[in-house]
């Protein structure tokens, strides 16, 4: 497994981060963006949740499609080690970085309670949308594509069609 270095980063409103943010596309650690000019999609994921796993390819496609927003993943689970989480996520070729949030600092800050749980935040860290990625655990079976629809509206400078949806998936282990 790749050698990991603990980073202390950012004066952004996220606070001083001590969790590892690992970029699986480049296999390197990266500092969280301090850019205030991009909105961010925060996605809480879990190595122990099949619902998270079923969404990885779809979320990856959204991250590529909507380059006007920054995608950031959080692995928030008290019972899964950092090494286990990194090994798990590495096998899925995730194209956005993931923080290991073992102390649940960010899950608690945003009141994330299931995985996947998505938050679209603006430049001032105000939540614009929170909820599910789609209306089914598997995107192939979905009839509503909440995150895609919200990001499409955002890109087209239109009113967001959703600000809240029911989150599906596994509860975050606290």
UniProtKB/TrEMBL annotation:
The keyword Nucleotide-binding does not apply. Gene3D superfamilies: Glutaredoxin. Keywords: Signal. Residues 5-159 form the Thioredoxin domain. Residues 1-15 form the signal peptide. It holds the Pfam family Redoxin. The keyword Signal applies. Coiled coil: none annotated. This is Redoxin domain-containing protein.
């Amino acid at each position: 497994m790749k050698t990991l270095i603990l980073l202390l980063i950012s004066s952004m409103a996220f606070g001083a981060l001590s969790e590892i943010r690992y970029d699986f596309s480049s296999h390197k650690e990266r500092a969280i963006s301090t850019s205030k000019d991009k909105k961010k999609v925060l996605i809480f994921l879990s190595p122990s949740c099949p619902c998270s796993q079923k969404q990885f390819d779809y979320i990856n496609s959204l991250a590529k499609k909507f380059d006007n927003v920054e995608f950031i993943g959080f692995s928030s689970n008290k019972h899964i080690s950092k090494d286990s989480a990194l090994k798990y996520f590495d096998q899925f070729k995730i194209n956005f970085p993931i923080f290991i949030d073992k102390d649940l600092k960010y899950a608690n800050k945003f009141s994330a309670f299931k995985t996947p749980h998505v938050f679209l935040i603006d430049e001032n860290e105000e939540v614009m949308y929170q909820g599910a990625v789609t209306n089914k655990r598997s995107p192939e079976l979905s009839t509503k594509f909440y995150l895609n629809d919200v990001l499409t509206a955002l890109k087209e400078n239109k009113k967001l069609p959703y600000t809240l949806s029911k989150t599906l998936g596994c509860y975050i282990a606290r």
